[in-house]
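Obj: model holo form, ligand = pyridoxal-5'-phosphate.
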Amino acid sequence: MSLANGRPYLAIPGPSVMPDAVLRAMHRAAPNIYEGELIGMMPELVADLKYVARTDGHVAMYIANGHGAWEAALANTVQPGQAVLIAATGRFGHGWGEMAQAMGIETQILDHGRQAPVDAERVRAALAADKGQRIKAVLAVHVDTSSSVRSDIAALRAVLDELGHPALLMADCIASLACDRFEMDSWGADVMVTGSQKGLMVPPGLGFVFFNDRADAVRRAMPRVSRYWDWSPRANPEMFYQYFGGTAPTHHVYGLRASLDMIRAEGIEAVWTRHATLARGIWAAAECWGQGGPLTLNIADRAHRSHAVTAMRLGAPLGARLREWTARECGVTLGIGLGMSEPDDPKGTGFFRFGHMGHVNAHMILGLLGVVEAGLKALDIPHQAGGVAAAAEALVSPAPQG
Ligand SMILES: *Cc1c(COP(=O)(O)O)cnc(C)c1O
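Output (holo structure tokens):
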């Protein structure tokens, strides 16, 4: 007997659950790319992307995943031989840094480990020491999907302003956009990168680079930008063909239209509040289980936990055993530990993650938690019972301020 038959649930931190409305919008014959509906859809699509990012700036779109958006952001703003400062809070910060290195950019990495948010004072010290202003950009990951820590992007803006340092502030919001509150303009990010397959609920395949006029001035002063990554024609297209530097990803555009319609209808503030509330339910369950056994949340302080992804540790081999059990017995796939190797566990199998980004609601989260609690029981992993009840309680409690 298996209890897994029925609708499967991919509860990993990207790709995320796709709404039926997105899938239906994509299920169509090939549309014309030279005239007609698709072309007319673009101005509103761009406006709605900026609504989600809280910016009046510009957006360039790419047929790419998040790695492509990383490269695009750097290709438009930093020359080989110039330097960037990376405040790394997990695997993805290091990944963006490796991308920069491969592009011939000098990298100065502030490694914050994998359990702490960016320390603005460390960034301040590094920038203050940069007397020649060789650092052209500060790179920070808003939510590092491996550690599930969330960092304060506005605090980095404040540091740059206080020092009068001209480096651009670049944020990776691939995991956080349309999940955790992010305010590109008022928080002062000059460049922000994201992808389609997390909070935007569309299959992997679209990368986005948002940028303001300051960043665009840097772009215009570049001696050369690789033609394909150049954000200028994509953000200011004279014809439809230029939005994507060639043939458009037609079906992704339709899927994105459907997802933005959903976000617009709910309202971005309500989308953030839903994620925050569901996250509190998850934390309540995990904190309960942890009181009677080995389970710990990777980020101890609630104030620094993402609302889109939660990394937890059970210790090897229990994390992997739990994931295997929930998938096989219940049709729920949990995320692997990423970048979480330990001396006696090089693959990080003691860790697992929940993705709770985008198209998720209370019954899915309570179902996910119920399945995990069943797994803890079935596998005889010590835990305090009552996690699901604690989550139910948290979901109906008034939200704390902030
Ligand atoms: C998923 C993710 C990436 C990588 O995106 P891909 O689409 O897999 O290339 C980068 N940064 C963060 C924070 C992510 O969550």
